[in-house]
Amino acid sequence: MQTQLARDLGLEFPVFAFTHCRDVAAAVSKAGGLGVLGVAGHSLSNLKMELEWIESEIGDKPYGVDLLLPTKFVGSDRGGLDAEALDARIPAEHRKFLDELLAQHGVPALPPDAKLAPEFSVGYEGQRDVIELVFQHRIRLIASALGPPPAWMIDLGREHGVKVAALAGTVEHARRHVEAGVDLVVAQGYEAGGHTGTVSTMVLVPEVVDAVAPTPVLAAGGIGNGRQLTASLALGAQGIWCGSVWLTTEEAETHPVVKQKFLAATSSDTVRSRSLTGKPARQLRSAWTDAWEDPSNPDPLPMPLQPRLVREAQARIQRTAHKNEGAQQLANYFVGQIVGSLNHVKSVRTVMEEFASEYADTMERLDALAGG
Ligand SMILES: Cc1cc2nc3c(=O)[nH]c(=O)nc-3n(C[C@H](O)[C@H](O)[C@H](O)COP(=O)(O)O)c2cc1C
């Protein structure tokens, strides 16, 4: 499994793990892959602590970070809007619908001292501090999602010897990223958890590999076992980029109620919905997504209005989902179609070992076919 990209980054396996959980990122890097911490939703001080913790855990093993850098969002023509301007754009009808949805499900209000997660940040300038902070650490890779990285981020990558990646859901995205100067492209198909386009991984990966050669490509979306890893290499990818498979690991900080829902879910139980971030993102179907899909209810707002609107409601649901049936029905999270194969809690190391052993078995089977 020693692809050129794996050799360049000093990896034992070309397995790239996207995660919002530092324990998962560290465990993947320790097991020979590359843990990539999603930094969206971290405050600067918290992020610094997380990166320092990962570095203390993994020693000189490589790791990376990922940012959401959307090019199109409400106010993007002005480099973003302040909180007051965003609030003024949230219709009263949406606030009323959300209040009623939570009331119908009996979800209690937050206690007065409850803290909300940090604000969803968009725009290059709004995230400059974050990008400068991560470059003060020993990252080996930085990835940009929802748009190409700015030129100054590519320059910082070159200066620090850090590979710059970008996620692509179409060939056009991939070409744009390469024109911007990225070192590798993550071709992420429709099956994926999180923000996703409409082209399947099976179709997208070879298209992108051909379109951007010789730039290396990672396959993403619906990959959770060694057969899918081997298939990705067969499609021309230099490795895999997975997100969902880590969400049911021992190390993952997935909400316990949602983890149980993931373990029970089938591959038909996800939906692409704008109800959490304002852009289409694959997540587990729940009473939350059903309500936002219902044509008699308001449509989700565009990014970043929707995350601003639902931030408190989501905190209320998560705080009480373990004891309140209504909150439990609403609870969900981003996950891809591979959720149907996530039926047991395993350690990250076990997942990595299974990737490797199933890859070896599959290669043996294919060798026998070729020889026979
Ligand atoms: C819970 C979750 C959160 C995600 N958040 C982000 C994110 O902040 N930035 C990003 O680039 N990708 C994000 N993604 C997408 C992953 O980077 C990755 O492309 C995707 O999970 C691959 O498909 P898979 O879920 O089938 O493995 C997220 C995915 C999941 C499951």
Give a description of the structure.
The protein is of the alpha/beta class and 372 residues long. The chain has 15 helices and eleven strands. It has helices at residues 4-9, 22-30, 44-58, 83-88, 92-104, 128-134, 151-160, 171-180, 201-212, 226-234, 256-264, 287-293, 305-320, 325-330, 348-371, and strands at residues 15-19, 34-38, 63-68, 141-145, 163-168, 184-188, 194-195, 217-220, 240-242, 270-273, 281-284. The protein has an eight-stranded parallel β-barrel, surrounded by five helices. Strands 7-11-10 form a three-stranded antiparallel β-sheet, covered by helices on one side. Strand 8 (217-220), helix 10 and strand 9 form a beta-alpha-beta unit. Helix 5 runs parallel beside helix 13 (305-320), helix 8 (171-180) runs parallel beside helix 9 and helix 10 (226-234) crosses helix 15. The radius of gyration is 20 Å and the shape is globular. The two termini are 23 Å apart. The model has no long low-confidence stretch (mean pLDDT 96). Bound molecules: flavin mononucleotide. Residues 18, 38, 40, 66, 68, 143, 145, 167, 188, 191-194, 220-223, 241-245, 333-336, 338 line the site of flavin mononucleotide.
List the helices and strands and how they pair.
Elements: H1 4-9, E1 15-19, H2 22-30, E2 34-38, H3 44-58, E3 63-68, H4 83-88, H5 92-104, H6 128-134, E4 141-145, H7 151-160, E5 163-168, H8 171-180, E6 184-188, E7 194-195, H9 201-212, E8 217-220, H10 226-234, E9 240-242, H11 256-264, E10 270-273, E11 281-284, H12 287-293, H13 305-320, H14 325-330, H15 348-371
Parallel strand pairs: 1-2, 1-9, 2-3, 3-4, 4-5, 5-6, 6-8, 8-9
Antiparallel strand pairs: 7-11, 10-11
Helix pairs in contact: 2-3, 3-6, 5-13, 8-9, 10-15
The chain binds flavin mononucleotide (FMN).
Flavin mononucleotide (FMN) binds next to strand 3, strand 4 and strand 9.
